Amino acid sequence: MKAFLIDRYGKQPGRLGEASAPEVGAHDVLIEVHASSVNVLDSKISTGEFKLILAYSFPLILGNDLAGVVVTVGSHVTRFKPGDEVYARPPQGRIGTFAERIAVDENAIALKPANTSMAQAASLPLVALTAWQVLVDTARLQKGQKVLIHAGSGGVGTIAIQLAKHLGAFVATTTSTANVEWVKVLGADVVIDYKKQNFENVLHGYDVVLNSLGTDVLDKSLKVLKPGGQLISISGPPTALFAQEQGLSWPLQQVMRLLSLGIRRRARKQDIKYSFVFMRANGTQLQQISALVEAGIINPVIDRTFSFESTAEALKYVEQGRAKGKVVVTIK
């Protein structure tokens, strides 16, 4: 089958080549991939940024999102059947959605929202699950609370704004001048144009901050939060708790503890809780997200679509950091 692969870690663009057909385990669903989407995570994996955390072998098929059709199911699969239209973020140890087919554990899969195209569905899993696991699982965001979502025009930001509004929160976000009015349409109550304003001088008394930017933004975000607030980052630094949940060695747990020591100490001095969230595959949550999409509460946001042959170009485009919403690769 055709797949987009890398042969080693580095800044090389990857290549379209031939790969072996997936092996289908007893709990796996074999999916014909119709569309995938590109995430910043794909580039970070490609350059080796996560090689201490995620032990991949080469050649490695990239890709963390998919929408497609079930071809066959393993002997113990009960929730899906051939012909079902599904979408998923595969478990992190078994990525590879930039391919014509992939085998995915059934617990990571959900039926595709009926009102979406394959491209729209493929744009959702990673970013929607990230938003859910930050706002619902970790923050336990309540009606009337105030949340700041950084990078509101990005993949996670566009979905997180919509989900936060559905949960009844007051939403602030940061974006560039060109996207101010656009993110208001998504539901943001307050929009900070980072080219003209410093958000830490404008926003105060917030309950939650979702950070997807650099460490400098973390310190500034502390000024926005009230005592008892939560600073939740999806871009690091990671914590020892994360390392434990990943099953990493004791030395690596201590490395993670040291990496996050500074921000945890500064947060604690202000009675603020710092958390690092690394999204995990979850088909049950994805099915709940499907219901919100079908109800029109969450709408997919696609910036551009690339052909399978142009996957390398799609990765380069995402790396520029200018995409509004998601970038999709059509495979079938």
Automatic annotation (TrEMBL):
InterPro entries: ADH-like_N, ER, GroES-like_sf, NAD(P)-bd_dom_sf, Quin_OxRdtase/zeta-crystal_CS, YIM1/Zinc_Alcohol_DH_Fams. It comes from the Bacteria. Its EC number is 1.-.-.-. One of its GO terms (molecular function) is oxidoreductase activity. Pfam families: ADH_N (PF08240), ADH_zinc_N_2 (PF13602). CDD domains: MDR_like_2. Residues 14-329 form the Enoyl reductase (ER) domain. The keyword Endoplasmic reticulum does not apply. Keywords: Oxidoreductase. PANTHER family: ALCOHOL DEHYDROGENASE RELATED, RETICULON-4-INTERACTING PROTEIN 1, MITOCHONDRIAL. This is NADP-dependent oxidoreductase. It comes from Pseudomonas canadensis.
